[in-house]
Amino acid sequence: VSQKELNLGILAHVDAGKTTLTERLLYEAGVIDRIGSVDAGTTLTDSLALERQRGITIKSAVVSFAIDDVHVNLIDTPGHPDFIAEVERVLSVLDGAVLVISAVEGVQPQTRVLMRALERLRVPTLLFVNKIDRAGADDERVLASIAERLTPAIVPMGSACELATRRASFVLFDDDEHLVEALTERDDELLAEYLAGDVAASRVRDALSVQTRRSLVHPVYFGAAITGAGVVELKEAIAKLLPSTSPDGDGPLAASVFKIERGAGGEKIAYARMFAGTLRVRDRVSFGRDLEGKVTAIEVFERGRAVQRNSVAAGAIATLSGLHEIRIGDRIGEPGEDDTAHEFPPPTLESVVDAVDANDRARLRVALAQLAEQDPLINVSQDEANELSVSLYGEVQQQVIQATLADEYGIETAFREVTPLYIERPRSRGEAVEILHAESNPYEATIGLRVEPAAEGSGVAFRLDVSTASVPLYIYKTRESFEEHMGRYVRDALAGGLLGWPVTDCLVTMTQCVYAIPDGPPSRQGRSSAADFRKLTPIVVAQALEDAGTTVCEPIVRASLEAPTESLARVMTALGRIGAVVEESSLRGGLAVVDALVPAARAVELTRRLPGLTHGEGVLASTFAGHAPVTGEPPRRIRSAAFENAE
Ligand SMILES: Nc1nc2c(ncn2[C@@H]2O[C@H](COP(=O)(O)OP(=O)(O)OP(=O)(O)O)[C@@H](O)[C@H]2O)c(=O)[nH]1
Ligand SMILES: [Mg+2]
Questions:
Q1: Ligand 1 atom 11: the closest Cα is on which residue?
Q2: 102 lines ligand 1 (CB under 6 A)
Q3: Ligand 1 pocket residue status of 64, Cβ below 6 Å
Q4: Is residue 13 lining ligand 1, measured as CB closer than 6 Å?
Q5: How, if at all, do strands 331-333 and 423-426 pair?
Q6: In what side-by-side order are the strands of the sheet with 218-222?
Q7: The pLDDT of residue 143 is above 80
């Protein structure tokens, strides 16, 4: 049978039931005959020792099952915001997604963060309202809050019965009235047919699948992963409503790496989604930035297990061995469009990490580099005193890194107090040039750069504004390649600004470029080398920044708090003490709901104090809200740029 491929992500806030749902889908599809439990540490996708101990997902994991002729690669992702980097890379390889929402907790801040990303990337998404068996489950309230806070483009597919009991179930609507109402809003033809009174049921179903595939509407299912209610219906919908692809191995190879693992012998295993072409064992492929390697083994996922294959074609997900220098986010084969854009905010904290036994320091450095290469948004840097520091999303991630270093590398570590990861933004436009043969210039090249402020959150952009005749093509082959390399030198240089913090939200333009011509007979070869351009760039960048001036900014998060009304006064006092700006506060039932802007570093403190302030009943979620200039004396960091993988 010719199989279609569907790469499906399961996303949700922490504890919504993604891993439990994954287990249930595998069971319903006949892949496993006993359902594992998160609480007992026996699920297929929470396979790491740490995941089993803590009962939370830390790494995304791939499993597969079949629904009729559709082969589904399911990616179970972590929901804790500290592990958002894991979700980040998965997003770009998905054909569709199931966003899980708890029928009790409802739409959470993290649910919104995920939904916005899915919408931006136009990933067709089904909604699954889970835990309808639990006390406090409320279908109407959840639907209303989805429509209000998540997206109005929803199509409820049925209703929940015997809500909040162990017998809770899901019943599909047996008429199309409900569907038509939602679907005609985005389909005028359907509306006309409907008003004329002749819409066939199949026509409505087609409209539903077309609109779902275009990410115009999101069908909503209810159920309970733990009892299996609604899961069969969801499974059917996954195959019918989400887009699958028929394998097509023609055309040039293009794949994208979304996860890196290390095998038993420490060798790298890359998880790749095939977008075009065919990849065979022993193929030499190019990947990342000008690297090459030979694929020594290919495995695909087949009914919950990894199976060796000789080749893999477009549409599939496979693990590849043999590509030693490959990194997460790399493209394999044809270069794709720039994949440096991030869907989620960067880490806002950092902490210095020490090896308890000083003899472990060198090993710690290598271990951290390996972890960073598996985790795309984690940076490790080293300062002049050789101290290592790690960027972090939060304390849970810090504990996981610490435990991983102890368990997998046998290195005991101590983390110091977390500090904010500040950034610098250029204050105004600044320019600098170093001229070839000038006394101040130790290198064989002329480089002129202009730095100017760009929109908040836009990152670093680089542009060439020099004639192609002045580009040293004998080194870089093409103008595009020169632009790419110069862009990289510039970004590396911006890792530490005037006060040592990463410089961002700026546009850098190369305004002058000259390379040295050798004496003697004319030749198309020059005397300048790549090293001249690479080493001169940070000098010119530093001068341009000096000319522009920079503002140090600190990360701010929006803390969304829920606490019993009687603790509101204590919570407000605590918020005041940490410099929070309250945006909104309201009372709902016996709960006080507060949204406040808080410096990221202080939010950690708030998380720690909340249980005490609220007798353990407070709930806090923080989402990144941007960077704001620091008041008073700006902090300085004496730290060199992020170091490369130590291999
Ligand atoms: N009552 C009830 N409990 C559920 C249901 N689904 C999951 N749970 C429980 O909710 C808790 C979290 O479930 P998980 O499957 O680990 O949730 P998750 O979304 O994978 O969590 P993270 O991966 O850590 O974000 C566990 O204790 C589950 O047993 C459900 O349908 N009903
Ligand atoms: Mg999980």
A1: 15
A2: no
A3: no
A4: no
A5: unpaired
A6: 61-67, 70-76, 4-12, 96-102, 125-130, 218-222, 154-156
A7: yes
